[in-house]
């Protein structure tokens, strides 16, 4: 009979208990003992859920107080020097200092860098290596958790990140592979300790096997795993996920490991090739339950697909989710308000455990065939592609720029902001009252109108050139649109960890998307009525709405994206008709949808760029389209950004040096339209000095022609307070005036 297991489970707790406890601890509201108790409780619940679903093993080591990569950095002694001075007086606080720069004890310090975990919206803490990096094993936390689980009666499978993936994730040295010989002894020792702790199996994650690996990285696998296998007293399960193995498949299966896990959701075509190369002493773990989405699995499909494999492999077939369930909400049972019809289509992590059990039973000889999930009819991808071709504005940028500048008569170096203004406690309170029906729709609207009027008034006083309405009506830039579009399901508790204690609650795309009525027009129209200066209409782009939602599984992503683009195009048309002449369509998530493998890039950019262009394909030449992205390293996606052909793009750049801007100024012609590289960092509470901003502007003018340069902050201002925002923007406007007068 096939065995079941998972690669990892979410650690936020079914009701985000861990998040609450962490934040309370950081604020000094609870002590460390109380925090530790909540962590232990979450772990116990997670393990219990796995045992109750009859999994062969309980996976241990996937818990983290902040991040699993940071767990490993501390386990191997990878602690950058700046953390030694002013160290905290206990280990957990020191851990939090590395994670977030501060903890209840120890001096504040610059936190570790954070970046996205492969193509997910989870952020890990980047290991910082030095050329003379030394490693020293201290696996105390992992061994303690193994013991803790064993004492609760679990048959434990510890999980660790493999040495090659761990090194690949780090920064600070030119070739991280050079550090491998020094790191390996720690892994050898670690495997010995885990075997001593009676771990029958150890799971080693090497997701980089799903990437376009350089030769030297691929070649490092065999000798590395020779050493690990030799040392290990436990059996080793090598796991890969998020991407097909392709040219790395042979490498993975030839390693001296006792089993290999593949992501059969991302690469169903690799099940057969994998089964074919599997050695007689190896197990094949197939991840068929999607760890990246919330839909119930079509178990009938997998029953049919896997029956021959199960017959052939027997106990050597393991069933699992495609990747760790970290990327899925915890428990559907906590969704009190969700319609039953919707609930029946969904599976969160706990329900996915049940699915594994059902599938296991369905693969027993003689098991009855499972009922298939009904499929919906939708438009084919080919139709979509066809529609995306040749939907773009009739005029070229230079033609548009001429009419736009005649219409707007903006000064050189026009000043603007990215959209949101501070979301104050008062505003949140009003929103809460409205949600709980303590105030009426008209009261709520009156509050928002007052807020908009205030935001416009302040911008007028500051002397900004292109204004915004401030986005007071939005709690989240995707949820706000998802709530107004048909085709989305909104959950009450569908939280997924984004980083540390931060969680996101992506809406679920459940069907064909359409726009029943205008979503932003009345607010923009009202804001514009208060000023003679242009007020930007503010939309979230189709690619970002798609990438920050759980997508459908029954149609390609391109189909949903085009549907969103269509809805947004109607909105753009309505804004234009209402007299809004500058419309910003934010696409901060364009980059994170880029496939992990180069071979998928062209296809993605074709439809993603096509959908963005579609949203503004019908506007008049004198309507100015802006877009915004919250990062500055565009090298890999520069062509796509140029292809968006927005009249103006605002980007993050204050925290990066000017080299990153070279892409925009760059040799290949750079960015041909107008550009506003953020001139100060909105993530920090520090108010930038005027002189500093003047300098920055001159630096920018060295790479960007003056007639193309806009002046704006890095990103939206909603997380800041008014005192900071007021002074920072005043300095920004003053600095711009200084430079205008001098050039
Ligand atoms: N317009 C949005 C805002 O200002 C953009 C947010 C973002 O880029 N993430 O808040
Ligand atoms: Zn931004």
Automatic annotation (TrEMBL):
InterPro entries: Cbl-indep_Met_Synth_N, Cobalamin-indep_Met_synthase, Met_Synth_C/arc, UROD/MetE-like_sf. Zn(2+) binds at residues 628, 630, 652, 715. Keywords: Amino-acid biosynthesis, Metal-binding, Methionine biosynthesis, Methyltransferase, Repeat, Transferase, Zinc. Residues 413-737 form the Cobalamin-independent methionine synthase MetE C-terminal/archaeal domain. L-methionine binds at residues 418-420, 471, 586. Pathway: Amino-acid biosynthesis; L-methionine biosynthesis via de novo pathway; L-methionine from L-homocysteine (MetE route): step 1/1. It catalyses: 5-methyltetrahydropteroyltri-L-glutamate + L-homocysteine = tetrahydropteroyltri-L-glutamate + L-methionine. 5-methyltetrahydropteroyltri-L-glutamate binds at residues 16-19, 116, 502-503, 548, 592. GO terms for molecular function: 5-methyltetrahydropteroyltriglutamate-homocysteine S-methyltransferase activity. The active site is at residue 683. L-homocysteine binds at residues 418-420, 471, 586. Pfam families: Meth_synt_1 (PF08267), Meth_synt_2 (PF01717). GO terms for biological process: methylation. Residues 4-312 form the Cobalamin-independent methionine synthase MetE N-terminal domain. Binds 1 zinc ion per subunit. Its EC number is 2.1.1.14. The keyword Metal-binding applies. It is an enzyme of class 2 (transferase). Catalyzes the transfer of a methyl group from 5-methyltetrahydrofolate to homocysteine resulting in methionine formation. Belongs to the vitamin-B12 independent methionine synthase family. This is 5-methyltetrahydropteroyltriglutamate--homocysteine methyltransferase.
């Amino acid at each position: 009979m096939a065995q079941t297991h998972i690669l990892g489970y979410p650690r936020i707790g079914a009701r985000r208990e861990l998040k609450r406890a962490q934040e309370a601890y950081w604020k000094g509201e609870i002590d460390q003992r109380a925090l530790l108790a909540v962590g232990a409780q979450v772990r116990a619940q997670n393990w219990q859920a796995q045992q109750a679903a009859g999994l062969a093993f309980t996976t241990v080591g996937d818990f983290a107080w902040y991040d699993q990569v940071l767990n490993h950095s501390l386990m191997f002694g990878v602690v950058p020097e700046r953390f030694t001075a002013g160290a905290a007086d206990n280990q957990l606080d020191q851990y939090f200092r590395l994670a977030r720069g501060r903890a209840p004890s120890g001096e504040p310090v610059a936190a570790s860098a954070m970046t996205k975990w492969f193509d997910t919206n989870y952020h890990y803490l980047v290991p910082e290596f030095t050329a003379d990096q030394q490693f020293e094993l201290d696996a105390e936390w992992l061994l303690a958790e193994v013991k803790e689980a064993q004492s609760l009666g679990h048959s434990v499978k510890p999980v660790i990140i493999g040495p090659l993936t761990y090194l690949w994730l780090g920064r600070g040295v030119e070739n991280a592979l050079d550090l491998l010989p020094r790191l390996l002894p720690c892994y050898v020792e670690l495997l010995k300790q885990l075997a001593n702790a009676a771990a029958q199996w150890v799971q080693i994650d090497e997701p980089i096997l799903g990437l376009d690996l350089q030769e030297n990285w691929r070649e490092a696998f065999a000798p590395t795993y020779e050493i690990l296998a030799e040392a290990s007293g436990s059996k080793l399960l090598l796991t890969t996920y998020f991407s097909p193995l392709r040219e790395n498949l042979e490498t993975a299966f030839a390693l001296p490991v006792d089993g290999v896990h593949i992501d059969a959701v991302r690469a169903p075509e690799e099940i057969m090739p994998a089964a074919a190369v599997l050695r007689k002493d190896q197990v094949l773990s197939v991840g068929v339950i999607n760890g990246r989405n919330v839909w119930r699995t079509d178990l009938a499909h997998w029953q049919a697909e896997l029956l021959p494999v199960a017959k052939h492999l027997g106990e050597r077939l393991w069933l699992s989710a495609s990747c760790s369930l970290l990327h899925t909400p915890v428990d559907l049972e906590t969704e009190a308000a969700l319609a039953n019809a919707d609930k029946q289509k969904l599976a969160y992590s706990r329900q996915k455990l049940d699915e594994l059990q059902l599938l296991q039973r369905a693969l027993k000889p003689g098991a009855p065939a499972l009922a298939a999930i009904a499929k919906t009819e939708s438009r084919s991808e080919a139709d979509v592609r066809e529609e995306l071709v040749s939907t773009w504005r009739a005029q070229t940028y230079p033609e548009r720029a001429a009419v736009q500048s005649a219409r707007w008569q903006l000064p050189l170096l026009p000043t603007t902001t990215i959209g949101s203004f501070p979301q104050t406690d008062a505003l949140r309170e009003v929103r809460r009252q409205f949600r709980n029906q303590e105030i009426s729709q008209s009261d709520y609207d009156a509050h928002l109108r007052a807020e908009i009027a205030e935001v416009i008034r302040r911008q007028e006083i500051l002397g900004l050139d292109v204004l915004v309405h401030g986005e007071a009506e939005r709690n989240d830039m995707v949820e706000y649109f998802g709530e107004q579009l048909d085709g989305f399901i909104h959950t009450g508790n569908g939280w997924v960890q984004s980083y540390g204690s931060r969680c996101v609650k992506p809406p679920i795309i459940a069907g064909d998307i359409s726009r029943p009525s205008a979503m932003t027009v009345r607010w923009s129209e009202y804001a514009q009525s208060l000023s003679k200066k242009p007020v930007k209409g503010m939309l979230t782009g189709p690619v970002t709405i798609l990438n920050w939602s759980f997508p459908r599984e029954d149609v390609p992503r391109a189909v949903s994206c085009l549907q969103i683009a269509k809805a947004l195009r109607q909105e753009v048309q309505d804004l234009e008709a209402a007299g809004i002449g500058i419309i910003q369509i934010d696409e901060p998530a364009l980059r994170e949808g880029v496939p992990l493998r180069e071979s998928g890039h062209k296809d993605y950019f074709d439809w993603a760029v096509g959908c963005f262009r579609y949203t503004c394909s019908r506007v008049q030449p004198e309507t100015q389209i802006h877009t915004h992205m919250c990062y500055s390293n565009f090298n890999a996606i520069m062509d796509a950004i140029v292809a968006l052909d927005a009249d103006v793009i605002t980007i993050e750049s204050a925290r990066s040096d000017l080299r990153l801007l070279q892409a925009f100024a760059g040799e290949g012609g750079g960015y041909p339209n107008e550009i506003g590289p953020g001139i100060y960092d909105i993530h920090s509470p520090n108010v930038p000095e005027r002189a500093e901003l003047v300098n920055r502007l001159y630096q920018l003018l060295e790479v960007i022609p003056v007639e193309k340069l806009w002046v704006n902050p890095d990103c939206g201002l909603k997380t800041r307070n008014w005192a900071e925002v007021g002074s920072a923007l005043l300095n920004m406007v003053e600095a711009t005036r200084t430079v205008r007068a001098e050039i």
